[in-house]
């Protein structure tokens, strides 16, 4: 069963085509990562899906309904978003920001219910901000802001989550905690992600983007290969397996570097990577 289907999506800004004929499918309940170099179009694709941008052509279909036919509030009951930019123009407290996640369920002037407040409290606890209710959002650290916005997305209680580099600003402890939390929700998740090891740990499928196009889609094992990392990101990598969780593990290597004249942690342009030395 499909949660999301995108057909021939094109998107341009100022006559520059940024997304070029994108078609993809996200299976229901899966965790799908979007990987690709800076500027490849990951955020722009997500913004088209969560309707910040309007596609130039093509269709975005969520649960068999065309998103362009949906009202904003209905859309917010179905898609929660953790976007990359978190600049707030106004000064809200942490609790006020998280409460905003309940807005799709409120009619105008309706106050927050006990259930709303309970959800807000629970999510703040889950992201480790239970003592932060009255703190001003604008004075928080980058990681605390990110955790507040995650809590806001989660109280929206949708069954589809869009994340744009969710672990941005988070220390490794919170990165793992956040990804575990999202994974435990078992809801369809589409996330732009830079860290290949995080992608390998949490994603069921990966979409690879390059220059505004989707160039590959598949399981982590199909997609994360040393050839792909070289072709798409221009880096050399050794890909092994973590013997405990059986997940792929990526370790990067210099293109050409020697310690005391001996090189052993890098590959040459012709692919040679054994221990060797140079006179120069
Ligand atoms: N509002 C805009 N006006 C003009 N160009 C834009 C705009 N938004 C994005 N772009 C361009 O579109 C391309 C794709 O940008 P996008 O932010 O989607 O890439 P990304 O893959 O998410 O990158 P990153 O990994 O750096 O976050 C870039 O070349 C970017 O400069």
TrEMBL record:
CDD domains: ABC_Iron-Siderophores_B12_Hemin. Pfam families: ABC_tran. InterPro entries: AAA+_ATPase, ABC_transporter-like_ATP-bd, P-loop_NTPase. One of its GO terms (molecular function) is ATP hydrolysis activity. Keywords: ATP-binding, Nucleotide-binding, Transport. It comes from the Bacteria. SUPFAM superfamilies: P-loop containing nucleoside triphosphate hydrolases. Residues 4-236 form the ABC transporter domain. The keyword Cell membrane does not apply. This is ABC transporter ATP-binding protein. It comes from Romboutsia weinsteinii.
